Amino acid sequence: MGAQSIDYINLIYILLFVLPIFVLNRIIGIKNEKKIIVSIVRMAIQLILVGIYLQYIFDLNNIFVNIAYILIMIGVASISIINSSPLQFKKVFIPVMLSLLIPNFIMIIFFNAVVVRIDFLFEAKYMITIGGMLLGNGLSGNIIGLTTFYSGIKKNKEIVNYDLALGATRFEATLPFFKEAIIVSINPTIASMATIGLVSLPGMMTGQILGGSIPIEAIRYQIAIMLAIFITKYFNIFLAIILTSFTMFDAKDQLKL
Amino acid sequence: MAFIEFKNIYLMYEDKVLFQDFSMIIEKGDKILITGKSGAGKSSLIKMLLGFSNYNKGSIKINDKELKDSDFSDIRSLYAYVNQDVTIRQGNVMKFLMNLESYKHNTFKMEGDYGLRDDLMKLFEFDKSLLYKESQELSGGERQRLGIIIAIMLNKPVFLLDEITSGLDYELKGKVANYFAKCNETVISISHDLVWKETGKFIKVGW
């Protein structure tokens, strides 16, 4: 039993509802038709391509291909994190990559082995989908965490230096900014755990129910994935700040930014 | 043996040469008063010692040993620093003081119920009630006095003082300058206030 399948022609019907948006935008003077069209076309093309090659990868289900796929996702996520933060690419690419790689790989393997209990731990269907969800959340967490930490220190250089001059190590002097960065970046996840199910049904659960799972089964998956997201994201941020700080400060404990 | 030595320092800041072939030797117990017009790099001199400012050429030696970049973190434990604005991190003052005690390079112990030494608070007219305030609520003059008391309590061999009397009234300026004139430690003080010179203990350096 699976979800009722959707034909491409059915997608065209829902696309018709975009037209009134163009009309209304015209009336209130927002000129972004081009942007909307480009975005919709990009979405469609990207997802069709993903659909095609995911099918291919799932059929192939080769351990090396699957790992390579995750590595590429991590690489792309790292680039995207650095570009959205004030950090210099050359200095932090490897630390940021490791901050995603280490927690995510451990979690994926643990999730597949202990929670889902599948025999082939690198099973494409699980590894790539679960890995993608973890990575998407780690990405936003790392952007917020790194930006909060380094902007805070840059803006408050005198405060940090005063602490250093009063006997603090670099870790002691920057600890308030570390705390702030962790809180700001992990709080949205804590809040969403508290309201999930009340306010919205998560996409993964919706997908599973439409795909034929009974709700109580879908819920167990959702609980597991929420916990996995929270834990992985926390360690992503923690590691990202610790690892980048080795290359972002000079020997005299001054931020190079 | 020289205690602190600047040797042939060359420092540029935004196209401006602040130090050219600058050398100075400071012995243990010396009291140095640095005066000079603003923008002349006086603060940079202290910041170079702390490792907060890099120099383009030359070297700094402590006990005749030339400092490498990686030495500065540890060498900071020699200094008790007070800057003009006393940039204390946000939060409760008392909490900040308790925190200081836990820093790796510090060995002093907070004293009494209030953390700070009563005799110092009395001498520099620092009211105990201020300890319960948030750091950002303190006035400029209150922060300067707090910074001075902290520096003394840290019990380090060298005082680095950057314009620490600018926000104080005349009587307090005198008390502060006299305290540092009489202490046994090495003192490097940057100030425009005449009271420092009037103590008669400071060697004046200017450029």
Strands of the widest sheet of chain B, in order across it, are 6-7-8-3-9
Query: What are the segments of chain B in which pLDDT stays under 50 over at least 5 consecutive residues?
Result: none
| Rg from alpha-carbon coordinates of chain B | 17 Å
What's the number of helices of chain A? 10
The overall number of domains of chain B is 1
Mean pLDDT across every amino acid position of chain B: 91
For the record, what CATH class of chain B applies? Alpha Beta
List keywords for this structure.
heterodimer; A: 257 residues; mainly alpha; 10 helices; 0% strand; globular; B: 207 residues; alpha/beta; Rossmann fold; 5-stranded parallel sheet; 4-stranded antiparallel sheet; 9 strands; 25% strand
Compact overview of the structure:
The complex is a heterodimer of chains A (257) and B (207). Chain A is mostly helical.
Structure description:
With 257 residues, chain A is an all-alpha fold. Chain A has two domains: 1-60; 62-248, no CATH class. In chain A, 79% of the residues lie in helices and 0% in strands. Chain A contains ten helices and no strands. Chain A has helices at residues 8-15, 18-28, 33-60, 63-83, 89-115, 124-155, 157-165, 170-195, 203-210, 215-248. In chain A, helix 4 (63-83) crosses helix 5, helix 5 (89-115) crosses helix 6 (124-155) and helix 6 (124-155) packs across helix 8 (170-195). The termini of chain A are far apart. The mean pLDDT of chain A is 93. With 207 residues, chain B is α/β, with parallel strands linked by helices. Chain B has one domain: Rossmann fold, CATH 3.40.50. Chain B is 30% helix and 25% strand. Chain B has seven helices and nine strands, in the order βββαββαβαααβαβαβ. Chain B has a five-stranded parallel beta sheet, sandwiched between helices. Chain B is globular, with a radius of gyration of 17 Å. Chain B starts with a strand and ends with a strand. In chain B, 35% of the residues are buried. The mean pLDDT of chain B is 91. At the A-B interface, helix 7 and helix 8 of A face strand 6 of B.
